[in-house]
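TA notes, week 10

Several of you asked for a full example with nothing omitted. So below is the full record: structure tokens for the whole chain, then the designed sequence directly under it. When grading your own attempts, check the secondary structure regions first.
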């Protein structure tokens, strides 16, 4: 079985931007080592005669034609008719982001 070192787990955590404590590094080292061993086992399987596959069901994307139904389109006046706050043909809403300067 492959045994990861604490440094290897710390390196992966750094790449993933995960701040881990020493206890977490040890815990994940013990948990990830069997996973790496399993992947090593899979790499030994002979797949030379297996064609690359992205999916196995044989299904294809079925898309409907993108057709505009003119009966379902609102004019700009109709779209804005439910609000009192408009400006230059747009909805006016309260600010959702604040400018925080420290």
């Amino acid at each position: 079985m492959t045994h990861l070192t604490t440094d290897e787990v710390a390196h992966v955590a750094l790449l993933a931007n995960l701040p881990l404590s020493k206890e977490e590094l040890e815990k994940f080292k013990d948990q990830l080592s069997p996973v790496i061993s399993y992947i090593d086992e899979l790499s030994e399987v002979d797949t030379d005669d297996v064609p690359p596959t992205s999916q196995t069901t044989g299904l294809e994307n079925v898309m409907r034609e993108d057709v505009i139904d003119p009966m379902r389109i609102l004019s700009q006046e109709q779209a804005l008719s439910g609000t009192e706050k408009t400006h230059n043909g747009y909805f006016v809403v309260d600010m959702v982001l604040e400018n925080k300067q420290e």
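The chain is about 35% helix and 5% strand. Use that as a sanity check on your answer.
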